[in-house]
Design brief:
The chain is mainly beta. The protein has no helices and 14 strands. Residues 1-33 form the signal peptide.
């Protein structure tokens, strides 16, 4: 998995329509046989808005997943204030993103693979993470989708999840199964699949489960406020980039068993 941290200068954006404090406004997925994505605003307030984009595509044939998390703030003008209309640079550790890859087993969506939380390493308003399933999809041939989760720190984590839509993988195979109409939602409890596409069981024989989406873990005591001096750059794996070259492991969901 590769991570790209793009710092962009602030620019004026078209003001977005006012709405609920926290909601998802999905954009249209492109009509392409090779990639499917959705994007939307998952948190909205007067001073902070979080936007998430989730993608599933063919990649090198085995599958590719991508999540973008973006931070916006209010744009103040002589004519008024416009929430969510200005990009909002955040210090290192203040934007978190996570990929969850789901596979359809014919009747329900199951978690197939996931990443640990990844945090921006420097000041930016956008944090992008990517993952490839090289060769073959991790849970066999079938329909796959990405649940992209992104959060921004502002004395607490604010954000949510967006579903990419579904894509048949590997891309060179012919789809013989009907496309699923349902999709997982943040907070749902789902089952877990192994590499053969079979449900994973715990040692006691009960089905292994996982919760869709959700916020990053609460930071350690090294955060006392929303200032760069108190950024989330602790020594624990949950609060730091996992390696110097920016690679973060895409884990098989079958390791999520418990006694």
């Amino acid at each position: 998995m590769r991570i790209r941290d793009w710092a962009r200068s602030a620019r004026t954006l078209t003001a977005v329509a006012a709405g609920a404090m926290a909601f998802v406004l999905l954009g249209a997925s492109p009509a392409s046989a090779h990639y499917v994505y959705q994007e939307g605003e998952v948190y909205r307030s007067n001073d902070l808005c979080t936007n998430v984009r989730a993608e599933i595509s063919h990649g090198d044939g085995g599958g590719y997943a991508r999540v973008d998390a973006k931070s916006y703030t209010v744009l103040a003008t002589p004519w008024g204030a416009y929430p969510c209309a200005k990009t909002h640079d955040r210090p290192g550790g203040y934007i978190a993103a996570k990929i969850e890859v789901y596979a359809w087993n014919g009747s329900a969506w199951y978690l197939c693979a996931y990443t640990d939380w990844a945090y921006n390493s420097g000041s930016t308003n956008q944090w992008i993470i990517e993952a490839w399933m090289s060769g073959l999809p991790y849970c066999g041939t079938g329909w796959y989708g990405t649940m992209g989760t992104g959060y921004v720190w502002n004395n607490n984590w604010f954000g949510g999840s967006v579903w990419s839509g579904h894509h048949w993988l590997p891309d060179y195979s012919l789809s013989a199964a009907e496309a699923p109409a349902a999709f997982p939602s943040e907070g749902n409890t789902v089952g877990v699949l192994d590499a053969a596409g079979e449900p994973v069981l715990n040692p006691d024989g009960t089905p292994a489960t996982a919760v869709v989406g959700g916020p990053p873990p609460a930071p350690d005591n090294n955060i006392q406020g929303d200032t760069p001096d108190n950024s989330i750059q602790g020594d624990t794996p949950e609060n730091s980039i996992q390696s110097e070259d920016g690679t973060v492991e895409l884990r098989p969901a079958s390791d999520l068993t418990h006694s």
